[in-house]
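Deviations from the work plan: none for this task. Representative record:
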Amino acid sequence: MTQPAIELDGVGKRYWKIQERSLLRSLVRFGPPNKTELWALRDANLLVEPGETIGIVGRNGAGKSTLLRLLAGVSRPTTGTVTTRGRIAPLLSVGVGFHQEMTGRENIYVNGMLLGFGKSRIDTLFDEIVEFADLADFIDTPVKFYSSGMYMRLGFSVAMHVEPDVLLVDEVLAVGDIGFRIRSLDRMREMHRSGTAVVFVSHWLQAVQLLCPRAVCMHRGQIVFDGPTEGALARHHELLTSDADSAEYARGTVRVENRQLLKLDGSPAGTVQQDSAMIYRVELHFDESVESPQVLFQVYAEDGTFVYQMQTPLGESWRTLSAGAIATLDVTFLPRFGGGGTFRNVVVVTSIDTSVTYVRDDGLAYFVEPRIGAAGLSDLEAKIAIDGVDRTESRPMRFGGTWAAVEGA
Amino acid sequence: MNNRSLLISLAQKEFRVRYKRAWLGVIWSIALPIFQSAVMVFIFSRVGRFGSGSSFNYAAFVLAGMVPWLYLSASVASSTTSIVDASDITVKIAFPRAILPLVSPVANLFTLAISVLILFIALPIVGASVGPRFLFVLPAAVLLCAFTATLGLALGALYVYFRDVKFMVQAVLLVWIYITPIVYPPSALKGAAPWLDFNPLTGIVGLFQRAVGAPVPSVRALLVSVATTLVLGVVAIRAHHRHDRLFVDLL
């Protein structure tokens, strides 16, 4: 039995929200202290084996960053214990702790030492780090003249070469040029093979889906799901949706209720496959009588990019819906979004000439599984052939776990 | 072991970065102390007339007193804000935070060494004699560095919790130079002189001044310096030990 790389046992982290932090205030305290407690993390249990790659998903403020800080050892839990074994390399955001005035070379040394390496060890790794970052020509230039891509490559390269036992990755893969991204993924795969445990936190759900066989979903400071990534993402979207179900649209002439994402046979859709048509079904409740209402169906990507719209024949008179009427709106669509990701269905109900918008319902977010090799907002179903030989990407990218098992079967 | 090399390389970095874009570079680290000391000597030998009638060379006395003062004032201000200033590193990488307040005192060791060298060279110029008593700068420097480091550690930790500390430090530094016998000998205060001994800097500055011929500082002043350093050291180390991984919650 190998020992786990990461072990969280009943871990909680409490923050004090202090209104005003000044010496005067704390010396002269009138009445009760004006601080409220906030549990950013509560009763978290987690086991990660060496060589395991685990994803963490959750909305902003779900406790992901707090968890990472505890794992990185920069913060101490209020309750419970955090045990990590071996060297931990945090790959958190861009260019950790670089000094603008110093050259790339000087920064490599300081950064390597911060991660716990001695000078001689960095000496031996130096050339490899520079080569990996592809910065040989700029290594003696102060990093303030670096582009953001160069900056990121340098930070990434250092962290990748300190041979960590636990690698914490936070959002970094979403930036950088494609060549470096592929090199980084290869390097991570190599580290994974040599037993490095990887904790991958990202809002970029495709990456989580592609890299991690296992994921945890966090919600309001608690781990609410720990298991296969599909399950974690499904739970994540469930939570995204339930929180969108606020009372914001409860008032007005028209209300949108009972949002459902269904398969064609009417059963609820979990994660969405690109090839199977979906039905987005909502109820339109009319609190006042509306003459020939018009509907716009829109799809937005996670980052707010407008992806698609279909509308009813605007301006065409067709029927009056009286006060109290409930109409069922069915939108059938094929979720062909090449790279997959999170999308949101929006329903807008307007008056016949679109001059009055009765409701704009940011209803349902759902996750579309990526298609291997495909990226971008739409899927044109491209095939790449070279001299007549099909070279279209079809390899699974995931590290170990379920996809590899399928491959072997 | 790695922590020590990290501290040293951070100190080198700080020193290099400080003068990197300046045309005269490192010369500033020598020129500024000389200039400030010269101004002090000039003003106070005319205004205060502290020098007249004393048994030692007044210019040498002020120059010697300025050496520890310049080191302390340069180090303490940046030690205080060090942990907060480095928040982009401290929220991400785990390493002993106590290293950060120590960076500035270590980086300034080089400047301190140069100031001592300049003092040595300046003594004959201002007409003071140089003797074996100049070796007093060695224990003086050790005590000075220990005091500065522990003060920096304590203030650095405190500043994370109370952001007022930065301004209080600035205010105290403004006053401290005048309540320390740097530009005047303790004897100039007559009856109030014993009160100076409760200033932990008095003993340290006195040792430096002893090196250039001033009377030996009082035992009480020296004891206060040593005791303050020890107490600050214990308090600061315990504070860092307990709060090392809590600082980040407030950054």
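The first helix of chain B runs from residue 2 to 19.
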